[in-house]
Amino acid sequence: MSNVGTSVPRTDGPSKVVGTAKYVDDLSMPGMLHGATLRSPVARGILKRIVKDPAFDWTGITFVDATDVPVNVVALIQDDQPVLASHEIRHRYEPLALIACDDALRLARAARHVTFEIEPLPAIFDPRASFERREIVAPPDNVFGRYRITKGDAEAALASCEVVVSGTYSVHHQEQLYIEPQGVIAWFDERGAHVHGSIQCPYYVQKGVKKTFVLTESDVDVVQTVTGGGFGGKEEYPTVISLHALLLAKKSRRPVKMIYDRQEDIEATTKRHPAEIGIVTGCDRDGTLRAISIHVLMDGGAYVTLTPVVLSRGILHAAGAYRWEHVLAEAVAVATNTPPNGAFRGFGAPQTIWAVERHLDKVARQLGMDPLVLKSNNVLRVGDTTATSQTLKESVGIGECIEKARTASDWDRKRALGPVVQGRKARGIGACVFMHGAGFTGSGERRLKGRVALDLLLGGRVRIRTASTDIGQGTETVFSQIAADALGLPMSQVEFLQPSTARVPDSGPTVASRTVMVVGSIVEAAARELKERIDAEQAATGLDRRRAMDALVFRAMGTAEHVYDTPRDLEWDDATYRGDAYPVYGWGCDIAEVEVDLDTFETKVLGFWAAADVGKAIHPTHCKGQIEGGTLQAIGWALHEQIVWKDGAILNGRMTNYIVPTSLDAPPFTTLLVEAPYSRGPGGGAKGIGELPMDGGAPAIAAAIEHATGISMDNLPCLPEDLFERARKGRAA
Amino acid sequence: MSLPELSLHGLERPDSLGSVCERLAERAARGEKTVLLAGGTDWFVERHVAPATDGSEAELVLDVSRLPELRGISASGDTLWIGAATTYLELRRHPVVAARVPLLPAMSKDVGAVQIQARGTLGGNLATASPAADGVGALAALDATVHLLSVRGPRSIAISDYFTGYKRSVRAADEVITGFTVQMPGEGSFQYWRKVGTRLAQAISKVALAGVAEVSDGQVTRLGLGMVSVAPTTAFLPTVRALALRRPLDRIADSALDAATQADVSPIDDVRSTGDYRRHVSGALVREFFRTLRSR
Ligand SMILES: Cc1cc2nc3c(=O)[nH]c(=O)nc-3n(C[C@H](O)[C@H](O)[C@H](O)COP(=O)(O)OP(=O)(O)OC[C@H]3O[C@@H](n4cnc5c(N)ncnc54)[C@H](O)[C@@H]3O)c2cc1C
Questions:
Q1: How do residues B188-247 score in pLDDT, each as one tens digit?
Q2: Domain extent listing, chain A
Q3: Architecture of domain A446-563
């Protein structure tokens, strides 16, 4: 019996299709109030006074401000972000006060009767200005993080390279736009604090609640309700809304529900970090890459949140999927007065991969080479060392990815043909080669020690307990497949417990493309242990399988709890940023064919070929779904999406004007799965797939636009207006 | 608009057009606000952005979507009648419209997506008087006549006389739009629709052009143009029309068309696009219209 490798029906499918799945807004509690957040109307300032209109009838309305917060920090990496601002305001939409009421209409009305007296301060929106400290908006020096990677001597090598190319590239904000906005219900009872909500990482929320309310682990239960997408947007942010709901619940002594509407969600929650990346490379005239020097400046927004980690992942991917003898990479993230930027699928890597891929297209142009040939000649292979001097030992399927994508897309012919212009339309084709580290960076997994438990239940059933959430990506199904096969049971006998910090061990956050590869392997190990116990029980007693399982339950031997067996041979030095940055990498080659309208500069993606090395596709349909969905998100980032800012406020915070692609805008996808197994991956070698597909889309599209039109975009996005401006400047020059 | 806010609005469903007019007249005389509900696809969005907070601010909703007098499409000779409460989906499915005025189904297919097409109406599109209204662009190209009714009686006006400014029109507070009449273009006429939106569906126009032309002996004998999102109201492109009408097609130069188009549009920067881009695309669409017309 083999479930792994088969696209079994998803276990959470039926309830979602028929509508019985309960999302947080479908839930209600007796005596529940609705909560709302009152936010800063300015990007930076000093909060002087909160004024509640005395003419308004405040009975039945709970009001909370910073004075009600026991410990006023949102616990994450640094304790710089207040739960509610008490004095200094660092961004527009920053939470200043909270209100709750049992009547949603009165709540909305009450919100209009609170005003804030604020002394405005000059704000900074340009990371460069922040870096130059034109204003100190985050003491002491506006800097949220710095990293440096060195290998060989890049500066010296560049000075002696035959061909030296330099360029500056930039990327913009992106909104996660999960279909279900942020929301929680929270209350206190004799057992402590409870939060139920749309949450990616229940243990992160628990950590925040413990800190703010000075509670211990056993006082706080955080439960994930059915979640409609996250893409990183529900990694750190749910802590904020959970703390808000709990503050209102504490003061009102009632359960409080807080659900953001779309506009509030777009305006107030985290986005992808914008970045500016300068690159200088040196290579031989035959295209052999030698040296690269990279400088990354990332815009963290108003508070630290996860910025240092995003910056780290960004810099670790900045040299791309290539062999370089000499690398110098320096990265800095700074504060600006926009809402904090945070986790978003790819986590810094799409930003730097955009830059290095656009850069290599430029190098190829300068050398007169086919860019895919240049990339393929220099791509990392087993035995090569990465920018952090990690020697790749196994599972490098990039060669096969490139070959498959190249053949399937008919690259050689189409590329050689040059742009095909018919009437007012021009066609072109472009490629991107990339890798993405799977699992936590460096020593992350060792520090975390993710744990999973499997329980035998009476009647021959098995239950998986992990904190890894299914937010639509299929965790529940894939874990069930892995457990069922390791146990030798049908999937129908495996169930998945709704993640709740009171009932599941901490398997770590649902992030970093680690769920299947890392947590899946813990599930597999725990399942194997249970199987051994069952086999032994059967051998000793001669009972049939089902009775042997029950016997183990009766003797309290039915639970196997496992801790992640961190690969021991990984070496990583946080101080020098050298060593095994990731246990293994996912690899990809994306090829896009586009047609650009030479009058309107609209880009239509005619075809998209995505080849991805996933190690082992536990569930091929889910894998393809991740690849298509992630790629479409990347295409949206390149061709449609753009936050329109004015003085730190977002002008297009609605789905009608924050433009993501619709199904009509989606190209026909050809998804090509490559399986170069990872020796420690579950199910026969699975690696992470969650983030990889976000990396290649934008550079491939831009390369295709360039092939079609000659317009070379170094900056995202590539909206028709941007192409038009570039073309106009090109003509003027 | 949230559901609790919706409950602030009274809702009535008058059973005849006459009683709609009477209710409107009474309320207008007392200075009370009333909204006619056709598809609701504009009104709900408007109230979402600016919700009523208490009953006294909330306008009364009169549902006109089922009034037979406002529904239906009929042809008599070369004249086509389109009731104000006709939906985009109805326009897409009507055989006479498809055969004689393919511009309308082409435009309708580009409105929102099928859900909006099933509810949104041509009357609602005009009543909002937004320059981004795609349906109005098509009506402008067809030089439609707008029919209004109130207790004071009916009146009919050319669509080019309808607008008085951004989201403003000659329609009085007590008037209902009952429908439109259109002189159907002749056999072999050229009809053009191109929408440049923010994406392929669920998109508001950055620029769109509707065009109707009849040519005989190489000379343009009928010309109607309506351009969307390039001016405070739907643009009728009078300079372009004047340049080309009753002119031999092959004597209309692109440079002259460009100059005329630029004289007729005054687009702005907004969250969807830039004024510069819109100017550029306006010119390109007009050129494409004439290029295609010439090559037929
Ligand atoms: C998701 C979405 C996508 C959309 N996409 C497009 C698009 O692509 N192109 C486009 O042009 N529009 C689009 N719209 C806007 C809208 O759908 C259209 O303008 C539609 O035609 C409005 O018609 P309605 O019947 O829904 O108007 P309603 O909302 O019912 O009414 C709008 C206004 O018109 C008044 N009104 C309605 N009927 C009459 C009448 N007979 N007499 C007098 N006044 C009347 C109402 O009182 C109200 O003030 C979109 C809207 C949404 C929500």
A1: 999 999 999 999 999 999 999 999 999 999 999 999 999 999 999 999 999 999 999 999
A2: 24-122+176-268, 275-441+576-729, 446-563
A3: 2-Layer Sandwich (3.30)
Tell me which residue in B7, B196, B204 faces A656 most closely, judged by beta carbons: B204
Phi first, then psi: give them for residue A143, nearest 5 degrees. Answer: -95, 125
Q: What is the pLDDT at residue A1? A: 57
| Residue in B6, B49, B199, B272 to test binding to A, most A beta-carbons within 10 Å | B199
**What's the CATH code, domain A24-122+176-268?**
3.90.1170.50
A109: closest chain B residue by CA: B53
If you search the block for the tokens 């343009």, which residue do you land on?
B220
Choose the residue to mutate in B13, B24, B33, B42 for probing ligand 1, maximizing ligand atoms within 8 Å of C-beta.
B42
Measure the CA–CA gap between A321 and A588, rounded to whole angstroms. Answer: 9
Chain B: residue nearest A103 by CA? B4
User: Which DSSP symbol is given to A23?
Assistant: B
Q: Which residues of A touch B274 (CB under 8 A)?
A: 721
**pTM value surpassing 0.90:** yes
Contacts of B45 in chain A (CB under 8 A): 656
Mutating to test ligand 1, I would choose from B34, B36, B149 the residue with most ligand atoms within 8 A of its C-beta, which is: B36
Is A108 close to B199, i.e. CB distance below 8 A? no
Classify domain A275-441+576-729 by CATH architecture.
Answer: 2-Layer Sandwich (3.30)
Amino acid at B1: M
* 3-class DSSP string for A82-133: CCCCCCEECCCCCEEEEEEECCHHHHHHHHCCEEEEEEECCCCCCHHHHHCC
Selected for mutation to probe chain A from B2, B54, B116, B200 (highest A CB count within 10 Å) is B200
> Do residue B281 and residue A725 have CB atoms under 8 angstroms apart?
no
CA A359 – CA A354 distance, rounded (Å): 8
The CA distance from B285 to the nearest CA of chain A, in Å, is 8
ipTM of the complex: 0.96
pLDDT digits 0-9 by tens, A170-181: 999 999 999 999
B288:A599 CB<8 A: yes
- Three-state SS string across chain B, please? CCHHHHCCCCEECCCCHHHHHHHHHHHHHCCCCEEEECCCCCHHHHHHHCCCCCCCCCCEEEECCCCHHHCCEEEECCEEEEECCCEHHHHHHCHHHHHHCCHHHHHHHCCCCHHHHHHCEHHHHHHHCCCCCHHHHHHHHCCCEEEEEECCEEEEEEHHHCEEECCEECCCCCCEEEEEEEECCCCCCEEEEEEEECCCCCCCEEEEEEEEEEEECCEEEEEEEEEECCCCCCECCHHHHHHHCCCEHHHCCHHHHHHHHHHHCCCCCCCCCCHHHHHHHHHHHHHHHHHHHHCC
Residues 6+ apart with CB under 8 A from A201: A234, A235, A236, A238, A467, A469, A509, A510, A511
Contact B274 A721 (CB under 8 A): yes
Q: Do domains A275-441+576-729 and A446-563 have the same CATH topology?
A: yes
